Structures are given as C-alpha cells and as structure tokens.
C-alpha cells in the first residue's frame, strides 16, 4: 500500500506565533543529516554536533532524545546510529507473520504464556461466551529478524478450539493454523491508541519505559459473525507504523 506524501509544512514544525525552540531547530538539522546516512551508520558525537551548530551539548542531547523516541536514531553500545526504517503494517485481516514477511524480513514469535483460564466478564462479552467459561490465553513476543518489536496476547474460546494446545505450534502463525482448521475470517473491530508499556512489558520487549507504544485491541469475527478471538497487541512506536485504505461510506 503506497504511503501518503509527507507535508513539508508539518515537518517544518513552525508554530503559528513565536520562534522555534533551539533544540527543535537542531533536531531538524540532525534529521537532515540522517537523510544522508544509511541505517546503522554512526552519527557524529554530541560535542561534534554542538560545535557544528553552535549550541550546547544539552540542546543536542534533547534533540537526539526526541529523534530516538521517533525511531530516527537508535543506540548502539554507547554511540548513536541512524535508525532502521519503520515496519509498515497494513490494517487488514492478515497475520503479523504475513505483514512482516511482505517487507522482506524474517518474522518470529517467542512464547511467553500459553494457558487456560476462566474468562472474566469483559473478555466473555467480547467473545460472546458465558463469564467463567474456559479460554486459552496465548502471549507471544513479536520478532522481526530476531529483534523484539512487540508483544501480543490472544484469547480464544477453549470450547470452540479444544485441541489448540495439542495441535498449534506457538512459533508459527495462529491465523494460518485457524484457516487450515476451517475458520473463515470475515471482519474485525480494531481500536488503536498510544500508551506507555508496563514494567513487565518493558522487560519482555527490552525497550525504554519512556518509549511510546502503539496498542491495538481487536475482536475478529468469522463468516457467521461469531467472534473468533480477542487480541491485545503492543508495538514499539519507534519501529512500527500502520496503514489503512479508506473508502467512502454510501450516502
């Protein structure tokens, strides 16, 4: 899916009134330097940037901190390097595995939890089952070329999929397994918001507690309109962006 063209005015960041903060001016200049570097290339040091732009190292540090949160800069040991391009995930009824593979990267999933539990009322309502009915909870780390980029929790009715723990390999695509089992995915409701990761999620994903995360909550339904799964997916904001194709609703 082609991405929309960036707007120069938006990137310029010029406020309606007043001057640009000095750190933001430096951020723009470093951003231009990054445009000339390949991913993983080392950046000049803070002192070199400070001398080059005639500002303090503290101002440079603040600019680089923001660029790091945006994914434009990454840390490599004690140095800073140009960041990797963000993974672009389409908002479609496709699995994470399929989306990452389309971008030429090697998808992977690492099992954290695969358990059977009683559905609390909110989850039961999402799956349209009775509160307390058994559900499977599958929690996995999301990997792209062995890099940890997210965390996904999936809940499914254990009565509907009683053999899931015996038949499904957690390192593979759950969507692929369900399709082979006869499930036809029809539609889904998905909500996207920004959050900060919990201490547990920070430890699992291996990211900074200050890094904004993209949280997706999805309920997926089959061709009969019956919920198949409730999914909570947490993605690193510095490594992911999402696209969607929009069409007009009928009048």
From TrEMBL:
Record keywords, A-Z: DNA-binding, Transcription, Transcription regulation
The answer on whether this UniProt entry bears the keyword Transport reads no
- All residue ranges annotated as the HTH gntR-type domain in the record: 20-85
Q: Which SMART domains match?
A: HTH_GNTR, UTRA
From the record, give the transmembrane residue ranges. none
The record's InterPro entries line, in alphabetical order, gives: Bact_HTH_transcr_reg (IPR050679), Chorismate_lyase_/UTRA_dom_sf (IPR028978), Tscrpt_reg_HTH_GntR (IPR000524), UTRA (IPR011663), WH-like_DNA-bd_sf (IPR036388), WH_DNA-bd_sf (IPR036390)
What's a GO biological-process term for it?
negative regulation of DNA-templated transcription
Q: Where, if anywhere, are coiled coils annotated? A: none
Q: Which Pfam families match?
A: GntR, UTRA
User: Annotated Gene Ontology MF terms?
Assistant: DNA binding; DNA-binding transcription factor activity
- Organism superkingdom: Bacteria
Q: What is this protein called?
A: GntR family transcriptional regulator
* Record organism: Kitasatospora acidiphila
């Amino acid at each position: 899916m082609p991405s929309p063209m960036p707007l120069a005015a938006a990137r310029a960041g010029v406020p309606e009134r007043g001057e640009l903060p000095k750190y933001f001016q430096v951020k723009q200049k470093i951003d231009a330097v990054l445009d000339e570097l390949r991913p993983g290339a080392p950046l000049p040091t803070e002192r070199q940037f400070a001398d080059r732009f005639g500002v303090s190292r503290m101002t440079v540090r603040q600019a680089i901190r923001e660029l790091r949160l945006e994914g434009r800069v990454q840390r490599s040991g004690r140095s800073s390097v140009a960041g990797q391009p963000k993974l672009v995930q389409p908002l479609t009824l496709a699995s994470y595995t399929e989306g990452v593979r389309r971008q030429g990267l090697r998808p992977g999933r690492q099992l954290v939890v695969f358990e059977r539990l009683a559905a609390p009322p909110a989850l039961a309502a999402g799956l349209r089952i009775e509160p307390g009915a058994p559900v499977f909870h599958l929690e996995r780390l999301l990997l792209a070329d062995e890099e940890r980029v997210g965390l996904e929790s999936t809940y499914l009715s254990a009565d509907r999929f009683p053999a899931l723990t015996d038949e499904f390999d957690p390192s593979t695509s759950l969507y692929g397994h369900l399709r082979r089992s006869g499930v036809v995915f029809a539609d889904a409701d998905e909500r996207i918001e920004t959050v900060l990761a919990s201490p547990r999620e920070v430890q699992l994903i291996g990211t900074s507690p200050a890094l904004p995360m993209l949280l997706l909550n999805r309920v997926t339904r089959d061709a009969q309109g019956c919920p198949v799964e409730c999914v909570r997916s947490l993605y690193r904001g510095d490594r992911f962006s999402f696209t969607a194709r929009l069409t007009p609703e009928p009048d």
